[in-house]
Design brief:
Length: about 300
């Protein structure tokens, strides 16, 4: 039973993230992932976590390929890998148009090609090769100014046809979001070589079922209603267009769209959550327990404890 914890980019309470990572480390989770959006710099958070955890693998889940140069990403990955004692996984993703254009001030053009280019260049730099220069090809290309780190795994956040193909070709792991379990299984079976599949639902343990559903619904409405068009299009393309439309028009998840919560979230008391998480086991290699942003610490602690790997 391989399990991990995933923190969303909207979670900006640094003290809560540290407490969650320490607890996950203590309870035997395999990985702890910190996302990045427009709030905390996840690489700084991961550096802090490297100093306060002992055994858990730390994942940049994920860095946008638009926000940093391949050289900066390679330096960061090698540094975090050394600081953590080899416990670092580099996650990369093509991000969204809203974040790329509205935050990084970059044109969101050919995102799959950008993902391929950055992944290829970062891997080469971590292997100790010289930088590939295209904008100023006459300059002297440099190598990473610290020991190479070819052992750093690279996971890609991919959901589209092109990016999934890039994952199958270049990545060590696949870290998608908002894919139904049957779609996860289908796409994983088509990959021509072994790739670690890390995915899972947003999870809330709360004995008050109405409160648990409200937290799951708020997280779902946030992703599908106000975070651009990538997630709504992805979910709609999997036979859930009507339900996505209801969420986007109401900014909540009405009963008529309950299937969205059933597919992409797990919530309820501890026993219910444990049972429902088992349904994900066959679809993934590492079951990622996503923590919705803003949960009070008692709910986070109970969720992490209830979802912890057995034994």
């Amino acid at each position: 039973m391989r399990r991990g914890i995933g923190i969303t980019p909207m979670e900006t309470r640094g003290d809560v993230i540290v407490r969650a990572a320490r607890l996950a480390d203590e309870l035997g989770y395999e990985v702890f992932s910190v996302a990045e959006g427009w709030g905390l710099d996840s690489t700084v958070v991961l550096a802090e976590l490297a100093t306060v955890t002992r055994r858990i693998t730390l994942v940049a889940g994920v860095l946008s390929v638009w926000g940093r140069s391949p050289a900066t990403i390679a330096m960061t990955a090698a540094s975090l890998n050394r600081l953590s004692g080899g416990r670092f996984v580099l996650g990369l993703g093509a991000s969204t148009r809203q974040l790329t254009e509205g935050w990084h001030d970059r044109a969101y053009e050919r995102p799959a090609a950008r993902l391929r280019e950055v992944t290829t260049r970062v891997r080469a730099l971590l292997n100790g090769e010289r930088a590939t220069l295209s904008t100023v090809p006459e300059a002297r290309p440099l190598r990473l100014g610290q020991p190479p780190a070819p052992e750093v795994p690279i996971w890609l956040a991919a959901t589209g046809e092109q990016t999934v193909r890039i994952t199958a070709e270049l990545a060590d792991g696949w870290y998608p979001i908002y894919l139904r379990r049957d779609r996860l299984t289908e796409l994983a079976s088509e990959m021509s070589r072994p790739v670690t599949v890390a995915a899972g639902p947003f999870t809330i343990v709360d004995p008050d079922l109405a409160a648990a559903r409200a937290a799951a619904a708020a997280c779902t409405a946030g992703y599908l209603g106000v975070m651009g068009d990538v997630y709504p299009r992805l979910v709609a393309s999997q036979g859930l267009a009507a339900e996505v439309g209801l969420v986007r028009s109401s900014r909540t998840v009405p009963e008529e769209a309950q299937i969205l919560l059933d597919e992409f979230t797990v919530y309820g008391d501890a026993a219910t959550v444990r049972d429902r998480l088992e349904q994900w086991e066959k679809a993934v290699d590492v079951l990622m327990v996503g923590l919705p942003p803003g949960l009070p610490w008692p709910r986070i602690e109970e969720t992490i404890r209830a979802a912890a790997p057995a034994g």
